[in-house]
Description:
Elements: H1 3-20, H2 27-35, E1 56-57, E2 63-64, H3 67-77, E3 84-88, H4 94-103, E4 107-112, H5 115-127, E5 133-137, E6 150-155, H6 164-168, E7 170-180, E8 185-193, E9 196-206
Parallel strand pairs: 3-4, 3-6, 4-5, 6-7
Antiparallel strand pairs: 1-2, 7-8, 8-9
The structure holds S-adenosylmethionine.
Amino acid sequence: MSIEKKYHTAINDLIIHLKNSKFLTDTRVESALRNIPRHKFVPESELDYAYNNEPLPLMKNQTISQPGVVTRMTEWLDVREGQKILEIGTGSGWQSAILSYLVGKGDVYSVERHPELAKFAQENLKKLNIDNVHVVLGDGSVGYPDESPYDRIIITAACTEIPLPLIDQLDEGGLILAPVGDSSQSLVLLQKTSKGMIEIKNQSKYVFVPLHGKFGKK
Ligand code: SAM
């Protein structure tokens, strides 16, 4: 079997699994998963496992998140064409690339603290000719005020509480999604309204690597 055929079959199998387990319900997100192949974002040593529904190791003891979790977070974020998105924790760039597909002519700003990972993500994005993801090297716990306000903010590392600067950088009506908690986290989706922040969704039992930095883990 050719390599491309092998991956095509593996993507199909993963998509069937994600649909059966109700992690994948949105056809736009399905299209993003098909068009942004995960095997382009995993280290060479992990290629055989690219379509297993599990997190995989990256450099600096970090991980590319599990496809089921990336799918759920992407669906909850309810991304629309033309939006401006801030992601904290670029890692491999896979989640950024999925968001970039969904915003179309919009933009994704993604902040990563490890230079090795920022470079790895930029290389992966370049190979797919993705030019609307802007990888920023720095401490994402303070956000990226230069391009604020954002329509959507997604944090892909565990935080004890959602950093206040990120709430400040969210536009009114916008959504922010983060794994919140210590050893185990809840995925929390909040909306900014004229009356303050309201919780839209909350689901427990997720595990992410920690968010570090000024407003991250001490
Ligand atoms: N979204 C990534 C992907 O698609 O591969 C996976 C992200 S990984 C679970 C979490 C990432 O958050 C790691 O790359 C880690 O270095 C990064 N991180 C942790 N604290 C950070 C901070 N304060 N600022 C920026 N990045 C941070």
